[in-house]
Amino acid sequence: EVQLVESGGGLVQAGGSLRLSCAASGFSFGDYIIAWFRQAPGKEREGVSCIGISDGSTYYADSVKGRFTISSDNAKNTVWLQMNSLKPEDTAVYYCAAEPRVFPDRPLLKLSYEYSYWGQGTQVTVSS
Hints:
Elements: E1 3-7, E2 10-13, E3 18-25, E4 32-39, E5 46-52, E6 58-60, E7 68-73, E8 78-83, E9 92-100, E10 117-118, E11 122-127
Parallel strand pairs: 2-11
Antiparallel strand pairs: 1-3, 3-8, 4-5, 4-9, 5-6, 7-8, 9-10, 9-11
């Protein structure tokens, strides 16, 4: 059974940092793309970042580029999202998602409908 468990969310002041983690189990970690999405109240779920575990390739949304860093530890089957210089507009529920990387030579998957497996989410609140 595929399981994704997020942790690390919380309340932080603007300019602060948080580190989210996504612990994965039940699948061959190295063969997947792991992504972070977020959803703010009244807004659609949006892609934040993703990583191809096999080669470490990454993608960042323009809104977080230069502030967020995604990384993985294959030995621990864990992906982290280091979030620095947080802004109030980063406030959202952050979800971890996973999908097999069927075509390693193609761009990483960036849209929520492309992912089959999801965690329960972790709340991030940035106060101004």
